[in-house]
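Run log // design_07
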C-alpha cells in the first residue's frame, strides 16, 4: 500500500508520510486542463494540532494514478473518532500536519494506473487508507478499494469499512461470540457501537448491554440492546452486576484508562476483554494534559501469572496497524458485504455534512450528539436539512 504524496498547490507541502497514505489526485489522465496542468480539487487539510478550526478546505493539484493505483472521485467520506484524536495530536497513525486526514471514503473510479486489471472506470468503490481520503479525488492502490454492493448508497459505503471491520474482528475474531452469550458495548450508539450491535444480532440469543447518553436509549432498544445504561449518571459496572451478578462474556473497551480495569473485572470466567480505543483522552476541543495523565496513570496492567489465575483473555486491536494485512482485511470485507446483501447489517447514518462544515461535523461527534455515523461529502447535500431521516 505504498504511496508518495503528490504536490499540493494551495496547501503547504506535506512532509513525506509513511505508507499507506492516499495521494492527492486528479483525473489528470482523463481530464487534464488546456495547459496540460491537472485540474484543481478541494481537500480537507489538518493545518496544525488544536481545535475545530484547524481543519480547513484547501485547493490542491495532483497527478494521475501511478502503476497499480486507481483514481477515485470521492462522493462521501467517513468521520472517525480517531480523526478527533488526530486533530489534537493524539493519533500516531496520521503523518504530521499539514496533512489531509481521512481513512475511508466511497466514490467512483475515474482513471486507472498501469497494471490495474480488476477495476474499471465507473466502478463504485469503498476505499480504506491510513489517511488522505478527505479529498474530492484521490489516488489509491487498487488493492485498497472494494467494490460497493448493489443498492448501497455512497454514504453507507463511507460508513462501512472502519466501523464494521473493527466491530467484526473484535467481536468474532477476538471475542469468539457464540449463542447465549452476553456483551457489554461502550459508546453503543456511535459508529463502531452500532455496527457491533447489528453483528451481535446475527448470533442467536446474545444479550447486549450498551452504554450511551440517555437521549439515545430508545434508539438502542430499537436496535436490540436489552440493557441501555447511562454511564454519565450511574456506575455502569454496578448496573451490569444488578442484572447479571456474574458479569458478561465479552467487554468491548474503546475507552481506556480505568474503564479497562472495570471491563476486566466485569468478565465471567472464560470472558474476553478487547481493548481498542482511548476515548477517555478526549474531553474538549484541545488536548487535555490532565485527561492524558489520568488515562495513563489508570492504565490497566496485568502479568501472565495473574492472567493465568483469572481464566480471562485480554486482547488489543488497532486497524491502523493492519495496513499490510490485505488478505485478512479483504476476507473480513467479503463477509461484511455478504451480511449486507442478506440484509443483516446496514450502516446507520447520523448526519451528512459538506466539507465546508467539517467543524460542525466534528462537533456533532465530539459533543456526543451522533447516533450512528457522521459523514462528510465534498458538495453540500441537496436537501436543506443535513440530518437524515432514520
Ligand atoms: N482500534 C481500532 O482499530 C478502532 C477503529 C475504529 C474505532 N475505534 C475506537 O472506537 C471508538 C468509537 O469510534 P467511532 O468512530 O465509532 O466513534 P463514535 O462511537 O461515533 O463516537 C462518538 C460517541 O462516543 C461517545 N463518547 C464516549 N466518550 C466520549 C468522549 N470522551 N468524547 C466524545 N464522545 C464520547 C459519545 O456517545 P455517548 O455519550 O452516547 O456514548 C459520542 O456520541 C473510539 O474509541 C475509537 O477510537 C478503534
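design_07 sequence
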Amino acid at each position: 500500500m505504498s504511496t508518495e504524496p503528490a504536490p499540493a498547490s494551495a496547501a503547504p507541502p506535506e512532509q513525506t508520510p509513511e505508507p499507506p497514505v492516499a495521494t492527492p489526485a486528479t483525473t489528470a489522465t482523463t481530464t487534464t486542463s488546456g495547459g496540460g496542468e491537472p485540474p484543481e480539487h478541494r481537500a480537507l487539510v489538518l493545518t496544525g494540532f488544536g481545535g475545530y478550526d484547524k481543519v480547513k478546505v484547501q485547493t490542491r493539484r495532483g497527478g494521475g494514478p501511478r502503476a497499480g493505483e486507481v483514481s477515485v472521485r470521492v462522493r462521501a467520506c467517513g468521520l472517525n473518532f480517531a480523526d478527533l484524536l488526530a486533530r489534537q495530536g493524539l493519533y500516531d497513525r496520521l503523518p504530521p500536519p499539514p496533512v489531509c486526514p481521512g481513512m475511508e471514503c466511497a466514490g467512483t473510479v475515474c482513471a486507472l494506473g498501469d497494471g490495474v486489471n480488476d477495476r474499471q472506470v465507473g466502478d463504485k468503490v469503498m476505499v480504506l487508507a491510513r489517511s488522505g481520503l478527505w479529498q474530492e479525488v484521490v489516488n489509491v492502490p487498487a488493492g485498497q478499494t472494494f467494490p460497493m454492493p448493489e443498492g448501497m448508497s455512497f454514504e453507507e459505503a463511507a460508513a462501512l469499512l472502519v466501523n464494521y471491520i473493527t466491530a467484526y474482528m473484535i467481536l468474532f475474531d477476538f471475542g469468539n461470540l457464540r449463542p447465549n452469550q452476553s456483551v457489554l458495548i461502550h459508546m453503543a450508539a456511535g459508529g463502531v457501537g452500532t455496527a457491533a450491535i447489528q453483528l451481535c444480532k446475527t448470533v442467536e440469543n446474545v444479550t447486549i448491554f450498551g452504554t450511551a447518553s440517555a437521549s439515545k436509549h430508545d434508539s438502542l432498544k430499537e436496535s436490540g440492546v436489552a440493557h441501555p445504561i447511562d454511564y454519565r449518571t450511574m456506575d455502569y459496572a454496578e448496573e451490569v452486576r444488578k442484572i447479571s451478578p456474574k458479569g458478561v462474556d465479552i467487554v468491548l473497551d474503546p475507552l481506556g484508562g480505568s474503564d479497562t480495569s472495570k471491563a476486566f473485572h466485569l468478565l465471567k470466567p472464560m470472558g474476553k476483554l478487547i481493548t481498542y480505543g482511548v476515548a477517555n483522552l478526549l474531553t474538549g476541543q484541545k488536548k487535555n494534559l490532565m485527561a492524558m495523565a489520568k488515562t495513563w496513570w489508570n492504565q490497566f496492567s496485568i502479568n501472565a501469572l495473574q492472567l493465568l489465575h483469572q481464566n480471562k483473555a485480554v486482547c488489543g486491536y488497532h486497524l491502523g496497524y493492519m495496513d499490510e494485512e490485505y488478505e485478512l482485511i479483504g476476507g473480513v470485507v467479503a463477509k461484511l458485504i455478504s451480511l449486507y446483501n442478506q440484509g443483516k447489517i446496514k450502516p446507520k447514518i447520523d448526519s451528512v455534512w459538506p466539507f465546508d462544515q467539517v467543524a460542525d461535523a466534528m462537533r456533532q461527534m465530539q459533543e456526543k450528539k451522533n447516533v450512528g455515523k457522521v459523514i462528510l461529502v465534498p458538495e453540500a447535500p441537496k436537501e436543506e436539512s443535513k440530518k437524515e431521516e432514520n
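Residues 163-321 form a domain with the Rossmann fold fold (CATH 3.40.50.720).
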